[in-house]
Amino acid sequence: MICLALAAVTVAVYWRAGGFDFVNYDDPDYVTENPMVQNGLSLRGVIWAFTHFYASNWHPLTWISHMLDCQLFGLHAGGPHLVNVALHAVNGVLLFLLLQRLTGARWRSAMVAAIFLLHPLHVESVTWIAERKDVLSTFFGLLALLAYVKFSESEVHSPQSTVWYAWTTGLFALSLMAKPMLVTLPCVMLLLDVWPLERVENIGFRTFFTRQFGKLALEKWLWFILAAASSVVTFFAQKAGGAVQSTEHFPLAGRMANAVTAYFEYVLKTCWPIHLAVFYPVTHGQPIWQVVVAAAFVLGVTVAAMIAMKRWPFFLVGWLWFLGTLVPVIGLVQVGNQAMADRYTYIPLTGLFIIVVWGVWELVRRAKGAEIAAATAATALLAVLAAGTVHQLQFWQNGFALFTHALAVTRNNGLANNNLGTLLVAQGHADEGLEHYAEAVRLDPDDASFQNNLAAALARAGRDSEAIEHYEAAIHDNSKFAKAYSNLGALLLEQHHLDAAVTNLNEAVRIDPDSGTARNNLGNALAAAGRLDDALTQYSEAVRLDPTNGAVRLNAGLALVKAGRANDARVQFVEAVRLDPAFPEARFELGRLLFYARDFPGAAEQLGEAVKLRPNYAAAGYYLSAAEADMGRFDEAVAAANQALESAQRTGQTNLAARILKALEFYKSRQPLGEKGTN
Fold this sequence. Notes:
This protein has helices spanning 2-14, 27-32, 35-38, 43-51, 60-73, 78-103, 106-118, 123-127, 132-153, 159-178, 185-194, 211-219, 221-240, 252-271, 288-307, 313-326, 349-364, 370-393, 399-409, 414-426, 430-443, 448-460, 464-477, 482-494, 498-511, 516-528, 532-545, 550-562, 566-579, 584-596, 600-613, 618-630, 634-650, 654-670, and strands spanning 280-281, 338-340. The chain is mostly helical. A two-stranded antiparallel ribbon has the order 1-2. α22 packs antiparallel against α23 (464-477) and α22 (448-460) packs parallel to α24 (482-494). Mean pLDDT is 93; it is low at 674-679.
């Protein structure tokens, strides 16, 4: 009954997330711009998930879960959002079952699970589609802890203990393959050995230095090896993606100061969860008094927990759970530019929740009539947390809400400016978007992605020389930034600097051979340089990597036409139209190909659609008029030619206009008498 109530309340609070959109932070890398994920679940995709570093991570189970989402829901965000909500609800139930099995305290376990499910700090992990890795990793991690409890209760070296040890190992490995956050799980198991499993005698803080405790640690050797291996793989994945910050950029002293301050801030936000943001920028040169206060708090609580260890073991166990599980993301190895993140608290806060719930119970259990007061207070607390979560949910509806809110509650937030700029540019507010990009670069000139986005905006504004400077700055900041090389190469191609374009695009493909965009751009450059065979090789790879991209298929088709392979080109044009029926260029090229194949009805159909989609498409109108004329439909030919002529004259296409005029004269000469139109 409690399990059902926990799940029902969670779904009720988070249900509106089913109407939320993707956001332009990690969601593009994970889903909306990831062709491998968009292709759905396949053997090739599973192999890719296990064998590739991507988006600075190695988490194959997470990739597979996103592929399954696309298989089931396509690119509709509602499905993945509700899957996250369901996993969060299940995690709360598993946490309840774990604590109840460990302690036998039904209502205290339920209270911890309810706080876990309803706390506003967990909104980010639940409503951010890219954070599927958080809820998925926790799902397997909690199952691993449940299996570990069964192992700990089994007779040593018995067949049953061997089975549960194997289950624990497998589930722990699955958790790490979803997200390496839980590399500290063996340490959590050791804490549970102290309390509440009581597998070691509680003699105060010295418990952790006894031979008995050492044997329990040795028992977990395989799990520590798994954790170490996952840590190494993660480090190399993040370093390969350029996410690991150097000590030159972020000195060790600054990292330590930020770490201790972050611990303090996490506790504050747990108690008072307001001004939550998707990104908290690192503050360099923190006032020393802030660091001292934070360090004194962390040290003071640690000492108090050690002193109370014998009487209240849950205090130290909960506190070390909180401190320890945050170690991988506390910033000693700095990944990215965030000072802290709400999503990092998903598992660690459980330790604080245990302290609060068990601590309050210890304080009130002997007081007369305290049960009613405690129950009332607990109900009020959960109501407040639920209201806070509902309030925080509104900022995750879409990227505009998310990053506008982030700018409102933080200072000097380059990432929020950058991502808001991207949204504004996409909505046609180019000047305003450019301002946000420029502000992002001003705040953090060493961020290669900010430089790249500013460069792209400048290029769209026709400020090519400035764009090139910022592309080069992006490459200087991150020499492995394939997207910057690709974008720079594409811009150089537009300027007809073919050799430089090919050089940069070759580098983009070398760094990221799985980028369909880079291969498509390289194909364009090679085709322009007259290297048609090489271009076709790149287009073929681009189509293989990004088969749902109509523009790639269009370019491949154009190159095939030049190579005299009209039938192969027709396949690509047909597929481009199928993928995007509102793609006028694809319909035009398919229509023109059909026209030269003397399939005039098919040509007229495609060219007519192209003109409907783009009424000023003069070239499509010209070929449409020719197809109509070849079918003997001269009235329709004249009408199409007149529209095409008007478009060509309006857009300054003088040569095309002259050809249309000649065609018009012929069409009119073939019209029945009395039906000849005028220009």
